[in-house]
Amino acid sequence: MSPAPRQIVTPRPTMSLTIPQGMAPVEFFNSPANLKNLAEENGLLRTTDDLLMYRKLIGHSSEFDTSLMLDTSRRILDPLGRPVRRDQMSRGQKRSWNRMTQILFSYMLEKYPSPEEHLILCGEASLDSTWPLNKPGVPSIRMIHNHFMAFPMEQLRTAEEADPNDPNLTDSGHHSLFLRHLSEVYHQFLEVLDLQILAPISSDECRLGLTGYPQGLPSWVISDGPERLRDQYFWYEYEQILRGFLDFYRTFFLLVANGEPVVPREANFPNQVNNVLLSNQTFLRVARDLREKVIQDPQFANEIRWRPAYKQILYRDDLGRLIVTISQNSVGNAITELLGIVVRRVEDSAAYAAIEPGLVTRLLEARQRLIDANLGEPLSAPSWPNGEFVATL
Alpha helices, DSSP H only, in 260-391? Predict the structure, then answer.
């Protein structure tokens, strides 16, 4: 079987929310009212520092699907003023975030021990606060979140092949820009990172045999395996990867925007920016060409994300290794699509009702790990009023 991206169908229930007349769905989904409803209807656990664990009702996986979100909607009413990246979180929030991520990922490793039987991943994403509210495909909740998922490999093997030109798989052309033209200088720039736990690995070596993804992204393997997730220094290195990405992204799009080679004021590695990026002729040429396309093509210009937006993934490859990779977050692409999995969500209340008891039970099991670690208070919801699944349909 040749590697190819896959498209799976995931059922979802009928949504109970009513969007006010005259209001675009994307505007409503970003409102405090919707976020309040999300916590009340699907909230699993909340911490004292605004971290919320919740069920993804319109999700990706029928096996295991939950998210952590830095829910500042009750404290910061301006959507453009909310934290959207881990470097904007407080030290205490990051400490809780890292610990909760480690516990939830460890739960998936225990629940799904075989890479031949399940693909497991978590994906941390910035939902960029600078994108226009009415932009098609704009993320609906403008806060950083981390998405935890498990997929049965048998489901992926029997799924139909996805269109390799699907705009979600190609990042609307932005990923191919990095992959085809900037991959070499991107990797060279990230060599500045002094990493001890994360070792660089070619994406050819760690791509999934079934899908052939990820493609061309800088990747790192975690030395010594899952136990390293308990090491706080691992999370320091995990953040260093983000900081390097932010420097690359800011430098490139500042060059596209202004046409002048300038080291960004907030650069984490200013010497490397100057010596590697701004002295590289390919980097300068690609930025110049993109700048011209933005000037000439209004539709393309409207798709540019001028501020840093990323997806950073931790996943288990075919050999059982834990891999970290990072990509820019462009129009429409989901966490799973960086691994070659396109999810088509279909409203089917009966099909969802059939899988809901098992799904919710696993989410509650994972939640209990966080409660036992004193990492938050459980939330009641209609489907788990007392910590056990109750059918609501």
Answer: 270-272, 281-296, 298-301, 349-372
